[in-house]
């Protein structure tokens, strides 16, 4: 890991100016952030298949080794990619996909809502931040009168909070099927729930109606999911309004078309829910695999559809925290700590698993149960902001106030 100043000097030496190669190539630098809400299991996404503790602690959900039926796709002899993400193999082989393992925020707890809020604000451990870090990013350069950021979802996400103008992606079915009012219009639904709560008769009818629509929507777009002690309701709450993963390829396609059609759109936020896998997580097949597959398909589609714009695009895929090393009694995993961050793009130093791997032995785990964090995700975000967008030291300090760590450069010249 290098200091901010070293990374910025390197970026400036490569000719990068804030927001663009525009002075030379006319192509703006683009950043796409993908939020996997609900805490995806990074130890299944990029499995440490050579680590004996990985198999010992996950007797039913550990992925088989490379070359075995349903086995991981070997990356570097130590780590393997989940087979449901096979569509990303060409990007890894081309050096345009990399991962940062044991990544996260030391200050974050195990509450989905608090951790997502802090991830989106960019100030973990601080609960009073009013705007989001991508919203702040939009105020640091570029044409303030143009819409330069878009998002997928029913409401503007916290990460884009601020004064900059942003827009929702054009609507698309995306395989979502029926959606409840809670999913389609969260603010309206909250108001209706408050209103109906004043009369027990209406409250019961409202609740039953929404449960029915949620079950119908879930049945249309997702594989059947086991419910134990409210696991399904908990997962939906952890999604925080994010659409199911099944619609991700459609969102990716629409984003590519928007970016190709309007060069002023430089920033985007995509999101998908369904990662709070406390019950029947599965290994190479099952619930988790069924959600990972469309994410891999959508990211590969985005790279393909962007065409020559892909060189000037960086995609970061992140989740609020990881999951426990040990599987639980329901064949799932519980809220954890460290996770894996995905980085894709034409200039990404791919074909590598970055970061310091702490191992999974009990003595190395966070609080004795979770993957430890060795790389703050702000080191990755700040590194991309410096190398890719050309932000200077003072701008980085405004982007991530209170962050005093270094940056992790992930881009090639």
Automatic annotation (TrEMBL):
Leader sequence residues: 1-22
Keywords: Signal
Keyword Phosphoprotein: no
Pfam families tied to this protein: DUF1501
Protein name: DUF1501 domain-containing protein
